[in-house]
Amino acid sequence: MQDAQTHAWTRGLAGRFLVFEGPDGSGKTTQLRRFVECCKGHGVPMLEVREPGGTLIGERIRDVLLDRSTGELSMRCEMLLYMASRAQLVEEKIMPALAEGKLVIADRFVSSTLAYQGAAGGLPIAEIEDVARCALRGVNPDLVIIFDVDEITASKRMNPLLHAGTAGNGGSTRERAELDRIEARGLEFHRLVRGGYLAQAKADPDHHLVLDASKTPEEIWEQLQHGLTGRLCSR
Fold this sequence. Notes:
By secondary structure, this protein is an alpha/beta fold. It contains 11 helices and 5 strands; from the N terminus they run H-E-H-E-H-H-E-H-H-E-H-H-H-H-E-H.
């Protein structure tokens, strides 16, 4: 995509709240990094945050949620911890940045909770949405960008040695040990996560952009730019 076209959609980013979402192994973080660098190159004032985390309190909650030594949490406890981190992030970082007219870019937000603890974890969506209303104080994304990939492809990206069959049992165990507590859940869980994301996009297409994340990084980047041009330059 030509730089003039890129500049067109970057001009529409001030004061917007964009969320990058997708199953573990979707490649969203790679695209987020490229997106951030592009925005910086075009002088877009912004705040970049991640979930869970983004604040001192949030990072402590992140350690509890993702560290495999934490052990088993009830799904409801897990959901509430994510929301607690999110509530602090919204009040401490996101609301002030939006008030200043900055672009806010979040690596995960409520959509993750709806997909992971809701669709895959079995918690009623209505209950999650009730807690979210309390946590968010009316702050919702302008656009949720979902990097869609099937669970087999995602698992191969996260466990290359395991799927390639080039390592013995020791290698497979090492690969598994590198995954965090949520990533280490089985294929069926991550299949349900993907379905949860797609259901959200289908229910609210105006606020979701779904990209085919099974493609190469360059192809995904082109999809992202094209999608943002259509969404941001037409409004």
